[in-house]
Specification:
alpha+beta; Calcium-transporting ATPase, cytoplasmic transduction domain A; Rossmann fold; 4 domains; seven-stranded mixed beta sheet; 20 helices; about 20% strand; elongated
Length: about 625
């Protein structure tokens, strides 16, 4: 509990004790009024002050104004006990609200603990702590056991285990060694490591994540925007309605002013929109916080609301449903030896970061004289070309072979086939296989159980490879041999095919899926650690590579939206019922207190449930 909340709790207790004393003493006349004004001033002075300040700034119709008018009016009609009690219970509700918002903020702001305070650099044989902003690309930083990794980089010395739980929600640490990539915000657990910095702090993973989290509350869901607009027009209408209720009946009947004014004050207390104005944004905030604890970063309540209406889920294959860790399983040369074919392919792929290129280079496993390679080109969706020892070597798919005029042929094995042509003549092909990710099949089954109507897989791989993976996963539709532009076109077709209320979610690894992530209703990036494209192009970032986080994110969204709808229906139903009873003179001020504070507290407690999420 914060210091401010503790002070409020003390004020509530003191005011309650003073109210009991005033009630027991039962003084008459002005002395009686004064005895009730003391507990009222203790508990309500800040509300009166806020109401007066807002009136001076032109903001008349808010909850502070409603409470001030209702409670002061109660004193003028002789209902002093009710006046103090309404303010007292209103502040109790505010305390609950403050506590609930604090819990929600804490769940999200816990991510702020990943912000590094300093970085260690070595100067004249001694470690010096500097601000992470002062470290440049290429500098070597030293991370001791127990310290946060300050910037993204590559390990150049040492072995250790790194705790990534603050980013991914996973408890199992990752082992790192020389040449391993590490990212800022993680904690070095065991050994001392030295890291060569590859990104400035402003462009680092931790900086991008913190910016994402800090701005998540600015993107409101439709339900939040509706409630904000609703309260803007609702409050003035309520005030004018109360004035009519307090003035018109006694004018018509010629008396009973005190009774009708009392009814009007009850009407004001009942109609205070706190339950809706507080609980709806708090529910979305809680949902975002609960997701962040599981390593799922949602950029705003609007995306959470859209996730809850998921109708079609489209997956990229490599790196999303499969591990993206390829290995060479066969080499089929035509006029060269296996070693020569592999060498030419590895040299052609030397500058590529694609997983397929990495697998070929790993299979070659020898050091490369970079002077042998000239004019490297990466051809999107087709492969690579380079000059090696003066010969033009192209490695890629059948399209690339057709472009260079090489007479290629299919392979009888299932896998990703990399064809190689040397000086336009077909030299053979290399077979590369990928594996399904752990949890991919379970993720697809979970999505079907959630009622997702269509699951589609897109891939640039061959028909045989794509359909083999799709069959294993029980996908509804598999589209193969797609270029990046083809994936965009296919997603656009699926968007037109879905219902008006349904949403299309595209899930990719964020490496080459930025165009598709941006055109989908919801773009979900898998494995956001270290991927700038994932964090910037997507609406939801799953920080680890666990496919089961996708149905978990949808489940969190649906649960959050259910809580929002429950709060809206409950608050409006209770308030409407008590408003009618109040206008008829049946409901008293205590019923009004329940309709305001009681409903608010129940709605807030319900909203807190959005924070409780079971990680997968």
């Amino acid at each position: 509990m914060s210091r401010r909340q503790k002070r409020m709790l003390i004020r509530i207790i003191v005011s309650f004790v003073l109210l009991v004393v005033a009630k027991c003493l039962s003084f008459d006349g002005w002395l009686g009024y004064a005895s009730f004004l003391v507990p009222y001033a203790v508990i309500g002075w800040d509300i009166i002050w806020k109401a007066l300040r807002n009136i001076c700034h032109g903001q008349v119709f808010d909850e502070n104004f409603l409470m001030a008018i209702a409670t002061i009016g109660a004193f003028f009609t002789g209902e002093c006990t009710e006046g103090v009690a309404v303010m007292l219970f209103y502040q109790v509700g505010e305390l609950f609200q403050s506590y609930a918002v604090g819990r929600s903020r804490k769940s999200i702001s816990s991510l702020m603990d990943i912000r590094p305070d300093y970085a260690n650099i070595e100067v004249d044989g001694k470690l010096v702590q500097v601000d992470p902003d002062e470290v440049s690309i290429g500098d070597i930083i030293v991370i001791k056991p127990g310290e946060k990794i300050a910037l993204d980089g590559v390990v150049v010395e040492g072995n250790s285990f790194v705790d990534t739980s603050a980013l991914t929600g996973e408890s199992v640490p990752r082992g790192v060694m020389p040449d391993s990539e590490v990212i800022s915000g993680c904690i070095n657990q065991s050994g001392l490591i030295k890291v060569r910095v590859t990104k400035e702090f402003g462009e680092s993973t931790v900086a991008k994540i913190l910016d994402l989290v800090e701005n998540s509350s600015t993107k409101k869901a439709k339900a939040e925007s509706f409630i904000t607009k609703f309260a803007k027009y609702y409050t003035p209408c309520v005030v004018f309605g109360a004035v009519i209720l307090g003035v018109l009946p006694p004018l018509i009947s010629g008396g009973g002013w005190a009774n009708w004014i009392h009814r009007a004050l009850i009407f004001l207390v009942i109609s205070c929109p706190c339950a809706l104005v507080i609980s709806v944004p708090l529910s979305f905030f809680g949902g975002i916080g609960g997701a962040s604890k599981c390593g799922i970063l949602v950029k705003g309540g609007n995306y959470l609301e859209s996730l809850a209406r998921t109708e079609i889920v489209v997956f990229d294959k490599t790196g999303t449903l499969t591990k993206g860790v390829f290995s060479v399983t066969a080499i089929h040369p035509e006029k060269y030896s296996e070693d020569e074919l592999l060498e030419y392919a590895a040299l052609a792929e030397i500058y590529s970061d694609h997983p397929i290129a990495a697998s070929i280079k790993a299979a070659y496993g020898k050091s490369v004289d970079m002077r042998r390679v000239a004019n490297p080109q990466e051809l999107s969706g087709r492969g690579v070309c380079a000059e090696i020892d003066g010969r033009v070597v192209c490695a890629g798919n059948g399209r690339l072979m057709a472009e260079v005029g090489a007479k290629w042929h299919e392979c009888h094995k299932v896998g990703t086939i990399v064809h190689v042509a040397i000086d336009g003549e077909y030299a053979g092909h290399i077979v590369i296989s990928d594996e399904l990710k752990d949890g991919a099949a379970e993720a697809v089954a979970d999505l079907k159980n959630q009622g997702v109507s269509m699951l589609v897989m897109l891939t640039g791989d061959s028909k045989e490879v794509g359909e083999s993976v799709g069959e294993k996963l029980n996908m509804d539709q598999v589209c193969t041999e797609l270029l990046p532009v083809d994936k965009v076109q296919k997603v656009e077709e699926l968007i037109l095919a879905k219902s008006d209320k349904g949403k299309l979610v595209f899930t990719g690894d964020g490496i080459n899926d930025a165009p598709v992530l941006s055109i989908a209703d919801i773009g979900v990036a898998m494995g956001g650690i270290g991927s700038d494209a994932a964090i910037e192009a997507s609406d939801v970032v799953i920080m680890d590579d666990n496919p089961r986080k996708i149905p978990l994110a949808i489940d969190i969204a649906k649960r959050t939206l259910r809580i929002v709808h429950q709060n809206i229906v409950f608050a409006l139903s209770v308030k409407a019922a008590v408003l009618i009873l109040g206008a008829l003179g049946i409901a008293n001020m205590w019923a009004a207190v329940f309709a305001d504070v009681g409903v608010s507290v129940i709605a807030i407690l319900n909203a807190i449930r959005a924070l409780k999420v079971t990680n997968k």
